Amino acid sequence: MLSTSLLASLLVSSTLAAAPNPLEKRAFSVKSNSQTGRFRDGPNALRKAYLKHGIEVPSALEKRQAASGIASGPQPTATSSIVAVTEQNDLEYLSPVDIGGTIMELDFDTGSSDLWVFSDKLPPVQRKDHVWYAQQNSSTSELQDGYSWKISYGDGSGASGIVFADKVTVGEVTATRQAVEAATSVSTEFVQEASDGLLGLGFGHTNTIKPTRQPTFFENIKPTLREPLFTVTLKKNATGVYDFGYIDASKYIEPIQYIPINTSRGYWEYTATGYQIGNSPMRPLSFQSIADTGTTLMLLPPAATADYYSQVAGAKNNVTEGGYVFPCDSTLPDLTVQMLGNVNAVVPGHFINRSKSQTPGSPFCYGGIQQGSPTLSIWGDVFLKSQFAVFDGRDPPRIGFARQSVDWITHASPQHVSTSTGQSGSAAASRPVPNSADGRPISLMKYVRNTVRRWGLTPRVEGNGHIASKRSVKYKHLKFQGSNF
Hints:
Region (Disordered): 414-440
Helix content: 10-25%
Active site: 109, 292
Structural class: mainly beta
Number of strands: 32
Organism: Tothia fuscella
Number of helices: 8
InterPro entries: Aspartic_peptidase_A1, Aspergillopepsin-like_cat_dom, PEPTIDASE_A1, Peptidase_aspartic_dom_sf
Radius of gyration: 21 Å
CATH topology of the domain at 252-405 and 439-481: Cathepsin D, subunit A, domain 1
Signal peptide: 1-17
Largest sheet: 14 strands, mixed
């Protein structure tokens, strides 16, 4: 039997390697941490989510972004246990990942399926604030001739590059020949973010590698895990943790309720059947939902979003702030979302108070719930910070939710638990920095912009040079309506 201190190893796919040797089943945890000094704001996060998931970017939001001086669209590269540590105001949770001997801070993203990183193939100006991957720094790196990848968003931004097979270690487990997507081109949006890349935890049949799609890191390590699952415990303004291969009973206080998922689009996708605001009756409403650790906000159908803020004194959909805002002294009701099988999850009202407006003297705060598609809801970190979430990779896969234990605190260093059948450990996420380096509040618009871009909207340019969005655009299999500001 292997020592529990040894790292598990496995294949990326039959395309890249031969079958692995039998290994002891394992479990481990990883904390998420962040780089300091890199910031994003609320409207930017909303814009990123819109672009990622194909929701139309409101013209007012694009205009505000242009006025704020934040670049949009493609940028020429020639001219320019794991801890989840929170980036500014819980904007994102970053975790350390060892790729061929280089430690990089990646965003663990259940809403995508690519593992891509900054590389030495980018101009120095684009990678100067990032850790980057270089083949010459790894003794195990192999270029995959003829393989490429490309991630594109609706505004023309994105990233693309070449593919290597290399060792990728997260916590206690190593994928010996993981497909590593090294960027040779990135747009300004990614350069401005804190992460050094993404580690997708969606389903590999939708990743962007050509000519042959490759499995995700989780899909590759799953045969070596004690249980074929991972759990997510994100914290508000504090360190969170991803656990792989086991369920830590100390992190939740209610029975875990499971629901089936639909993997056809590569997401951890499930059906919501209704919602409840405070103590009001449950409102029946059926819509598809995605649990997405890579999105900051919670995007609900427009009708449900408007309904929620109608119960908040002084709340309004504000063009200046780029979304729903409310007086900071308003009391926010809890939101209960109901899923298939009468599974309920509660988001406490104080979790929905996203952040304070940066407008000098403004009494408003930015809402963690914003409107998205009428048919597709994105449950990002605002939702997940209130939950203990289980991403179960058994056949058929399922997702589970339980109320998170408020008494659970992430340890500052990895905690390892060994058993006769395997091992486990933990890793954490750093606290966000509430203000910029000069002490000013962070601009909310950046939250919106990043959220919109993430979910894939296509903007158009008006005659005055401002970027606007089409009022109704069909993207692949879904049709999304823009917001009226």
